[in-house]
Amino acid sequence: MNESNLNAPLLEVEGLVQRFAVASDVLGRPSQWLHAVEDVSLTLYPGESLGIVGESGCGKSTLARAILHLYEPSAGRVTFMGRDVGSARSADLRALRRDMQIVLQDPFGALNPRRIVGASIADGLKGPDRRKRAEALLERVGLKAADYSRYPHEFSGGQRQRICIARALAPEPKLLIADEAVSALDVSVQAQILNLLSELRADFGLSFLFISHNLAVVRSFCDRLTVMYLGRVVETGPTEAVFSDPAHPYTRALISAVPIPDPAHPGQHTLLEGDVPSPLTPPSGCAFRTRCPHAAPICAQSVPAMTPAGDRRSAACARLDDVMRGPIWDSAEGTK
Length: 336
Ligand SMILES: Nc1ncnc2c1ncn2[C@@H]1O[C@H](COP(=O)(O)OP(=O)(O)OP(=O)(O)O)[C@@H](O)[C@H]1O
Prior knowledge:
- By secondary structure, the chain is an alpha/beta fold.
- It folds into two domains: 1-221, P-loop containing nucleotide triphosphate hydrolases (Rossmann fold, 3-Layer(aba) Sandwich), CATH 3.40.50; 223-336, Rossmann fold (3-Layer(aba) Sandwich).
- The chain is built from ten helices and twelve strands.
- Strands 6-7-8-3-9-10-12-11 form an eight-stranded mixed β-sheet, with helices on both faces.
- A hairpin with a 2-residue loop joins β4 and β5 (83-84).
- α4 (130-140) packs across α5 (157-169).
- It starts with 10 loop residues before the first strand and ends in an 11-residue tail after the last helix.
- The chain binds adenosine-5'-triphosphate.
C-alpha cells in the first residue's frame, strides 16, 4: 500500500450527480435534463495524482467544476480537507477554492489580455512583497522575473500555460485540477509542461486531479486513474495495472486504440464502433452496452455497481467475470 493511503483523503466525492436543465415547459419548469455526471464517487489522497479519462463529452470537465462547487450539484457530496464543500458559506468557499486551483486547456483565454501577467499572479498572493514573490513564482515555472511586466500576447502557448500554473500556485493550493492542461500544446511543449508539473508536485507536495482524453499523457503522470463513460465511472485502479490488464470492456477498447508500441500485442485493436449515446437519453442499464462487444440482456436491466477487479481496482460491468476471463486484446467481435 502506498504510504499516502494511510492518511485521510484530501478529496472525497460521493455519489455526485450533475444534471443540466436543457428545456422547460410552458410554466418554465425544467422538462428535459442532460445527465452530465451520474453517481460519481472517487477519493484522492494527499500527494496523489489521479487521472480522469474518457471520450469528449463524458463529463470530465463538469466533474471538475462540480468539485469546485461552480455548480449546485443535483445530488451527492464533495468533501475537501475534511470539509463539506456544498455547505460552505461564501467566505469558507473562497478559502476552500484557494486550496484547490484549476489549470485549463486554453492558456490564452484564461489570462486577461489587458493586464500584465505579474499582476494576475500577484492577485493570488497575500501579505507583503507580492511583486517579489510573483517574480519568484515566474522563475519557478521557468520564466524570468522581468516577464512580470509583460502582457499575455507576448508569450508562446507553452509560456502562457507556465504563467497560468504560476498563478494557480500563488495561493499555495493543496490540490491542482489540470483540465486538459497540456492538450492544446505541441507534443514537445507538452512534455516540458508535464515535467514542470512533476517537479512542482514533488516540491510543493501537491495532489493532482488530472483530466485528459490523452491516455499516454495520463499514463506518464498519474498514480491511479478513473475511467468515465457517459457521466459514470466504469473503472478505477492503479495506472499501470489498468493499462496492462484493463477490466472493463470500455477501458479495453480505449486502451487498445492508443498507438503505444507494444511488442506483446502487435497490431491488435478493439475498435470502438458507433457513437456515444446522447446524455439526454442515456441507455437503460449499462450505458456502454450499445457499443459493447460483450453486451447481453442482463446489461440493460440495471446500472452495474462498481465491483472489485483486483488489487485496489474496481469496475462496473455485469459481465466482469466473463470479460476478464477472456483475452484482453482480441476478445471482441469488434476486433479488427
Ligand atoms: N452548462 C451546461 N449546460 C448544459 N449541458 C452541459 C453544460 N456543461 C456541459 N454540458 C454537457 O454535459 C456533458 C458533459 O460535458 P463535459 O464538458 O463535462 O465533458 P468532457 O468529458 O469534459 O468533454 P470535453 O473534453 O469535450 O470537454 C456534455 O454533453 C456537455 O454538452
